[in-house]
Structures
1.
Amino acid sequence: MDILLVLMPVALLLGAVFAWLFVRAARSGQFEDLDDPAIRMLQDD
Amino acid sequence: MTAELPGEGAAIARCPHCEAPVEGPEDRFCCHGCETAYHLLQDMGLGEWYAKRESPGARPETSDHAWNAVPVQRTPRGDCTTLAIDGLRCTSCTWVVERVLERTEGVQAAQVSYATGRAKVTWDPEVVDLERLASRIAAIGYAPRPVDAPAPPDPLFTNLAVAVFGTANLMLLTAAIYASWLDGMEPRFMVLFRWGALALATPIATWSAEPFWRGAFAGIRERRIGMDVPIALAVGVLYVHGLVQTLRGAEAYLDSLGMLVTLLLVGRILESRGRRDTADAAAAIASRLPRTARRRTVDGVEEVSPSDLAPGDLLELGPGTEIAADATLTEGALQVQTSMLTGETAPRTLAVGDDLLAGSVVLEGTGAARVVRAGENTTAMRMAEAVREAIDRPTVDNPANDLAPTFTAATIAVAALAGAAWSWAVSIPVGVEVAVAVLVVACPCALGLAVPLGVSAGLGALARRGVLLRDGDALLRLGEIDTVAIDKTGTLTFGEPTVLVADDAVLRVAAGLERASGHPIARAITREAVRRRIPLPMPQELQETAGVGVEGVLDGHRYALRSGGAGRVELLADGVVTGSIELGDRPREDAVQAMAALKAADLGVTVLSGDVSEATERLAHEVGVDAFHGSLLPHDKAAWIGQHGRVLFVGDGLNDGPALGAAHVGLAMRTGAGTALGVADGIIARDGLAPLVAAVRGARATRTAIRANLRRSLVYNALAVTAAAAGLVNPLVAAILMPFSSALVIHGASRVERELSRT
């Protein structure tokens, strides 16, 4: 069970990295338009 | 592309771009604009659009916005801005606009959104300018217009993401701690979990909850205790308590903290989503005003921005001028279309001394007008501003905000009393624990969500159906009405000429002659011809004389179209009258259906009209309404409304102002005159009466949902606080209670949209 002492901080750190990535993605505008891609995929060009 | 002409069975030719029927055996362009659009697309290698599109192209019209005045963002890649594009009807439309922009020299990137009707373009200012880009879009049949305030990206989204991430992990950790009550846990793991939980709760309580902190401090500074104060109080108490408990190695309520912040953020985001449509519509009103004006000076005429106009300035007016400020005509005579808010009404003839409203368009005549109100003070801008304000402060009449100070005080009082009682009876630590438990379960979550969620769900659902209400208060009042009084002309009817009687042959020639004219009568004639699928012929030597009529040569005859008295247009062939077209007002297509739906909703419906009683009676019967009053003066309508309780009045005209003001709720058709729009509680921003029915049903559903929500949250709070004061609530119980109550409230609010979607 001692592995938890390592795993938990590692898991939290990983999670934090993903949260940071998400915030960056949101700020760069990736979530500004959530409705179009769904329609766009029906369009073959 | 060919289609069958009904009744004749012969194939007819169509314009390759807009698919309007054209005369002759082969497909031909109906007008120069379509031809240009077609060749432009072919030259750019976009001809395949014609095969993939789902609806015909729109006929190109020129746009005259002041594009160089549109604010742009300078980026390393070039200038960047967002445009609104009207006329996108299918996804192929976004495809073709995007390609046309991308293949224009100097454009770095272009992205068109079908959902929002906006294009985001980045271009090299050295090579190309916005004016040229806009004219490219206009040339293929779409109408670009500047966006006044680009919608900012939702900043709460990132707050929510962090809150969700933290809360999910918090729940895992606290679940492990709760499990240890049964099985026990090694102390070092307990310490690890507790400190882990604190580490996760810290960004939630500070960064994610920042909007609540900001709101609470602003509220306290302005001595206005809104819902943010109890929310911030709860977050603060939870966090400080959690911090102290973690240091002491005891149980905290940190998962409840995460849940509280997450759910309230979800509420905030839903709220802003629901209002975005209304915000867009308000921006559209403002952007329809012209961006330049011609001002008369001692030296001549200069072109100025409308914001430079001041009361007293003289505006130079000519055919096609869009009026940039509210003004009084001082010389000349004009025929104007009060197309404010894109509405269409029959042209009005104005003489010296008459008032002109900003946004009207001069159809015929020249003259000058003295500015009365300019810039932000014009009727149109005030209306747009009123809508925008309502969007900024949707919860201004939120009953929960009124409850907030009492709620906050009551919660603190109960917490203090319970804490003191337990401290005295048992011990001080137990007293503190109970006081915190009271504060936690009396969490303002459900109460804070109840009204804003309901109102914003209602406002959003209505805006999507074409009804723009000024504020949540109007929505709540709309839910109380028991009678509907409706104006006739322009409300129940189109309020503009439509063809009533016409021979196909006469209509064909007339439509050919009028094909290029923008006059309302001309539009009525061409529209009817298109409706009957009559191909528009192409007369030669077309000549339009303002105020007289049009003439041209077709099939070897010289035809002329002249006014033949009220509601009548005469067609002359070589100077001899050969036929006539009768035009008149007609009830809207969905009037019968809408009136039936209102009656089915247990509402008394009455037609109130200034028109003579016989005409009113005829129309009332035509749309299936039994109650009507004709020959009413404006104050008669208002008086009638005053005697009939909670009346919803729907009108449009200048003379409807008093009635709109007197009614419990007044709704104006978007085609209405400026004053009507200014007095009204909201606008029906779409053609037809279906939005009216949606408004009534939506408002009722909203009221029901909000009442149910308030009831639920009050019952919840009463029960939970009692339990907490009795010492029955521990962190686990709180963690289960809180999301449950909030989920109930969110579910209740979503009922509005479901109710409206049900046919």
2.
Amino acid sequence: MEATHVHGAGHAHGGDHAHHPKGIMRWITTTNHKDIGTMYLWFSFTMFLVGGVMALILRAELFQPGLQFVEPEFFNQMITLHGLIMVFGAIMPAFVGFANWMIPLMIGAPDMAFARMNNWSFWLLPPAGILLTASMFVPGGAAGTGWTLYPPLSIQMGIGMDMAIFAIHILGMSSIMGSINIVTTILNLRAPGMTLMRMPMFCWTWLITGYLLIAVMPVLAGAVTMLLTDRHFGTSFFNAAGGGDPVLFQHIFWFFGHPEVYIIALPAFGVVSHVIPAFARKPLFGYTSMVYAIAAIALISFIVWAHHMYVVGMPVAGQLYFMYATILIAVPTGVKVFNWVATMWRGSLTFETPMLFALGFLFLFTIGGFTGLVLSNTAVDVQLQDTYYVVAHFHYVMVAGALFSAFAAVYYWLPKWTGHMYDETLGKWHFWLSFIFFNIAFFPQHFLGLAGMPRRIPDYALQFTDFNQVSTIGAFGFGLSQLLFLYIVLKTIRSGEKAAAKPWEGATGLEWTVPSPAPYHTFEEPPVLTEAKGHA
Amino acid sequence: MNQQASRYFVPDPSHYPLVGSVALFLLASGAALWMNKYAPGPYVVLAGFAVLLFMLFAWFGRVIGESESGKYNKQVDFSFRWAMSWFIFSEVMFFAAFFGALFYVRVLAVPDLASAEQQLLWPDFSTSWPSAGPKFAEQFTPMHAVGIPLINTLLLLSSGATLTWAHWGLLAGKRDQLKLGLILTIALGLLFISLQAYEYVHAYEELNLKLTTGVYGSTFFMLTGFHGLHVTIGATMLLVIFFRVMAGHFKPDHHFAFEAVAWYWHFVDVVWLCLFVVVYWL
């Protein structure tokens, strides 16, 4: 048994642990939530670049009709890996990284509830990432089914499919452990006096996201396990000849897949609920209704899954039910959007980079929400299913929603993490380049989809060329703009104006009461809450 | 100021997570190789399993040591309670996927295959559960509820009672009752697993009921198989608890490991009751 920690009461900086490993072993063995948060964020950014390069391969191929660069099989593999890597490797780990860094600071806890398991949650990601990327190089290549892994195609693939299945198992374990940790931390480690309804909104969104993850990741594990046994052990879950049904997989997958959408979106909502009040210099409008809206979105997300499957041949009654239930989600989502707008109403607004990204989120996510409403309409969806309209819709939600919110979070909290202010001019450049190129890349895809261009096909009819070329130019511009982001972050880590403990005039919450950069250990004794603190 | 004496416990840096990740990577890549008939597969799986066992021994050993040296205060105890509850919830959802599949094939898929719409494809297929699907040519006998499954139900229910009796012993400081209760529970669990194994052999050799017997075989063996795996894990955990009791661990006011295993055991029990009703009986 090693010596137990003995901490000085008032020390300000890390490095007080002589027996702690140094160098690479510090990162491998760490139980510190800030170290682990940092690793999550760097892993996420690395995967973002990997998945981004895959997207650019797709867009390069789609610059012209006909086949230019890649074989159709490889195109399908890029489609699959781009989806899996961006969802599980880039966006989810980014928000887990924010949760790791910020939730203990926000609730006045010394660390996560299970610090060792926290480390394992992170270190399960690289093996899964290796399995996914290595599957490109095995005989038969990676899974070419799209990230949804629908049978019967997924029954027919080679070893790459099995590697994807096992990667999903490992990612699921990581997500479940991470979520149990976050949920337990929020429920049990809040500083005395911080009741649930005084908790910062980011913690609320993560509490409910954690619940969603614990509920649906095991379901995905079950679905891919059935795929595995159908592939190798002769079961007939998805085989009609044996009494099963390929559509069964779609049901189980989307029972996971639809809550997954909110797993990605809710923490993004949480970030925006911090950034907008800070730069409007007003408390968040309608805190209580925000909490109820999050809970309502989470609950409804379990009963709408088949809106992804309107064309599989379900009864009209089923289509109608899933349509109405889906449209219902617009109500709590609308509550959130109007509350953010009301927060800004007559506020003292300034437009630093985090605020720009939050507003970009607000505009573009709302567009993505509206196209979602269009798609929720069964009669319309029959035309638009599997067209580029769907691709445009979910990229407005995933990229302009989740990713822009993640950028807002990075710029908002970077001073707290590094102790330096980022370069505001470059940050604004990053925003405007991202915003403009994003719209150039994805807005034309609405028109392509409405005109009938199918998704996941490397070739297309001649009349789609113009919009595809515009989209490809936008995609490359967007991808290159992210190198500027990398430069800004590295520059902020190495140099930059020193940041105050609370660099944003309108920011509230416990995280701004600790120095910048946040000391290695914070809140070893629970802070005393005053009336004003706690709320975001 | 000693942190453990205050509200919080934060563990030291640890190698175990990395070891666990290596183990799972070996298991995953080895299984992928094995299933695709590559020679190194079984060895890689075996290595992964060995590393995983080492990690479990070391990590749980560390946790047990920390607990016994008094580092876990009431707050840590409460964290463990939340975490175990959420973990069991995740297990519930895992089984829900398979129960959902069973529900779907019984209520939707099989009747649909026998419907008028499918008459041209499968003219002779009729909708009657248990079904192995329209293309399954062999004869098989489904598993009956009365017999071993009913005995197994009684075994597991009794094991839940003996475990609670052991818990009462622990709470009252009656260590002999605790030990006897645990031994009885483990014995009932092992008997259950043995009868399940016998039932599987019986199914394969006499009933021609196999994993490959259409969707009935798939759902039957996957549901009961995963349940049996969980009983095995639960019995192993009970065995660890028993050894810890023999080593003098647990006090009437500090024994969450015991309770966590008991929760898990009751959860496995409830899953069995659902299995008995919808897999064997109805």
